[in-house]
Every structure is written in C-alpha cells, then in structure tokens.
Amino acid sequence: MSSLLQGVNLYLIGMMGAGKTTVGQLLAKHLGYGFLDTDSVITQSAGRSINQLFAEEGEAAFRQLESDVLAQVCAYTRLTIATGGGIILRTENWSYLHHGLVVWLDVPVELLYTRLAEDTTRPLLQDADPQGKLRSLLEQRTPLYSQADLKITVREEQTPEDIANRVIEAIPSVLKPQVSQ
Ligand SMILES: Nc1ncnc2c1ncn2[C@@H]1O[C@H](COP(=O)(O)OP(=O)(O)O)[C@@H](O)[C@H]1O
Ligand SMILES: O=C(O)C1=C[C@@H](OP(=O)(O)O)[C@@H](O)[C@H](O)C1
Ligand SMILES: [Mg+2]
Description:
Blueprint: H1 2-5, E1 10-13, H2 20-31, E2 34-37, H3 38-46, H4 50-57, H5 59-73, E3 79-82, H6 91-97, E4 101-106, H7 109-116, H8 130-145, E5 150-153, H9 160-174
Helix pairs in contact: 2-9, 3-5, 4-5, 7-8
The structure holds adenosine-5'-diphosphate, shikimate-3-phosphate and magnesium ion.
Magnesium ion binds at residues 20-21, 37, 39, 82.
C-alpha cells in the first residue's frame, strides 16, 4: 500500500468526534507514515488550548492559524494528517488538501453526540443544544466534506482499527498503480 501511495499525504476530514485523530494515528502506523494533527500543531505553537484560542482570539483567528499550519504541513510527504473538523470551510485550504489524498470519515450525528457528550474541549459544542449544533454543522458542511477523494461511512460497532483497515482497503480504488515501461 505504501508503494501505491508513493509518499502522498493522507488527510482525514470530517466532523468533530468522527475519529480523525484516533484513526489517523493508526493509519500512520500501518502505512509507515508520520502523524500530525493540525489542532495539536496549533496548540503547541500557540501554547494555548483550542478553547482558549477561540475565547481569546475568536474563531476567525483560529481559522487563520489552521490555514497557516496546513500550508506548512503540505510541504512534507509521507504524513497522515488529522485535520480539525472545520478545515474544509476555507476554499484556499482545498488547494492544500488536494496535494494529498483526502478521506472523509462520515459518522452519524447520534454517534458523534454519544462520543462527545462529556467532552469540554470543542468550543463549538458549548451550546445549549450540542446535538442540534452537530446536526446543523453537518448539514452546512456536507457539500464540502463531499469533495473528499474517499468517503468512509462509519457504523457504531466499528473500532478505530476496523476503520483504519477500511481506509487502507479503499485506497487502491482511488489510486492508479503506475505502469512501468
Ligand atoms: N471508532 C471509534 N469507536 C469508538 N470511539 C471512538 C472511535 N473513534 C474515535 N472514538 C472516540 O471518540 C472521541 C473523538 O475521537 P477523535 O479521534 O478525537 O475525533 P476527531 O479528531 O475526529 O474529533 C474520542 O474519545 C475517541 O476515543
Ligand atoms: O469542527 C470544527 O470546527 C472544529 C473541530 C475541532 O477539531 P476535531 O474535528 O478534531 O474535533 C477543532 O479544530 C475546533 O474545535 C473546531
Ligand atoms: Mg481531532
């Protein structure tokens, strides 16, 4: 599989709670790739949490940091990159994402909500109706997530390892092997 990918980066996109960070680490291990999470790069370099950045700088400033990180990351190869759920919002980000293979982890809202019900690290879900918020974000973002090269539909019983395996199995369907002359 690594030889078929030829070092091309894998970008995981999808909603908060879809499992991008969790599955991305497993995928990197399977592929012999490095792993990066855009949220972690941002929080490490800013020395502040995502909650702090949203509260102190605002979402627009966070989105700029996210674009800056993506622009830097795409200079490297052999990486699996877990993105933040909103990375798809800026058109300019797609010019970076399309340098690699983009995989959408599509997870039903009910499952996202179950996973994140106790979570306090996603500022956009600090809402009176977090499930409704997830539903409306997914509705707004679905046309953008749909621009991925690969869509992996996730069911409740599937473990992160199952999902990583499904991604690996699906890669050949979107990559043509190079014919040697
Ligand atoms: N396939 C899965 N099955 C059960 N729980 C999962 C699965 N994938 C992720 N999780 C859990 O859901 C939460 C959100 O996962 P995370 O990887 O942080 O998602 P994202 O980065 O897409 O927001 C974490 O608590 C994680 O352990
Ligand atoms: O969907 C979003 O807009 C966001 C998703 C988060 O990342 P995860 O998708 O890893 O939770 C994080 O970037 C921030 O809270 C905003
Ligand atoms: Mg994440």
